[in-house]
Structure formats: structure tokens, C-alpha cells
Design brief:
The complex is a heterodimer of chains A (115) and B (110). Chain A is mostly beta strands. Chain A is built from no helices and eleven strands. In chain A, a hairpin with a 2-residue loop joins strand 7 and strand 8. In chain B, the strands form two sheets. In chain B, strands 2, 4, 5, 9, 10 and 11 form a six-stranded mixed sheet that branches. In chain B, a hairpin with a 6-residue loop joins strand 4 and strand 5. The radius of gyration of chain B is 13 Å and the shape is globular. The model of chain B has no long low-confidence stretch (mean pLDDT 93). Classes of the chains: A mainly beta (115), B mainly beta (110). At the A-B interface, strand 5 and strand 10 of A face strand 4 and strand 5 of B.
Amino acid sequence: GAVVSQHPSRVICKSGTSVKIECRSLDFQATTMFWYRQFPKQSLMLMATSNEGSKATYEQGVEKDKFLINHASLTLSTLTVTSAHPEDSSFYICSARGADHSPLHFGNGTRLTVT
Amino acid sequence: GQQLNQSPQSMFIQEGEDVSMNCTSSSIFNTWLWYKQEPGEGPVLLIALYKAGELTSNGRLTAQFGITRKDSFLNISASIPSDVGIYFCAGSSGNTPLVFGKGTRLSVIA
């Protein structure tokens, strides 16, 4: 089945630094990838839709300058949390879809802790 | 953003019991998906539904796409300890991003 790889699985960084998270589709080409954020005991909240070769579409309330998304190829999207603060600590999950109408498959998530 | 109404929020059941959870929406969806998430991991797809009325099984799991296209249920038969986790429903229309339910936290008592 479709596999989505996300890296790193855990990262701890100091306040003010930037962190990059990678999301790769391993056995299919993903024209669209999605980035979600999940707080403890809560559901997944969509942050942005990443489109290969074009700008990402951000959900309302998500700062595009804070969460930089680059979808440079059909198999790779990156999320960079810039100037991280403790309130950015969360579980970030990417997902990818191959052909239209195919189900989303998720990476294993990245737990970010900002100290 | 928009969310689905998923119930129950949590369940504590005895091993061997059957489980049922459901999701409803005020919007019509043309895709319903069910995922399971374990602690510290991303959601794993369990069942995908694409047609109103569709009933699909995956081992002990059975899910149905409601005829009105505004609801779906997931049943787990003869539960076992490894069924523990959070189950999410998700729906979409066309190529719109998935909308997720708030999850059903399942605990299985051996």
C-alpha cells in the first residue's frame, strides 16, 4: 500500500530556532500533500495544502510566514517552523494523496518540543 | 474549521464485545474514511468508502457509507486488546481537504 514517510519523528529545539520537517511519498507521486497539527487528545486540524510547483494554501489562522511549506517535487514536501516558540510545540502530521479521489495516507508524525 | 460529529467520544469495553461508532455531518460527502491512531503515531487508514450505501469490511471491521451521504458508521466485532486506540472518521467532497471527526477513544479491558 501507499507509504508516506515523515522525518524526523521527534525534535527538540530551542526557542527562536527553525525546524524543518520532511514528508515523502515513497511509492507514489503526490501532487497534493497536506499538513496537519494535532494537540493532545484532540483531532487533526488542517494547517495547509501543499501543491507541487505552486504556493501552498493556508487555512484561516495559520501564519504562512511562520509555517513555510515547500513542495519542490512530486514526492517531497517540507514544513519549516520558523522562529519556533513553546506554543508551537505540537504533533505535526503530513499526508499525501496520489491520484484524485484516492484516500489520504499519513506519515507517522513529528513531535516538536520547543524549550 | 468544519468538523464532523463523531460519537461516542470514548468507550470502555470488555474483550470480545462488539463496538459501534458513527459520524454525522450537515454536509454531503462523497468519500468517507475511517482511520485508527495509536499514541505517538500518525493515523492509519482502515476503510475507505466511496458510494452511498456501500458496506465494506476489513477483517473484523465493517463500515458503511450512509444512504443520505451525511453519515457513516464503523463496527468492530469481537474486540481484542490491540484494538485500543483512537478511531477517526473523515469525509470529503470532491478534492476538498478531509474534514475529521473528533475521534472515539477505545479502551479494551481484557
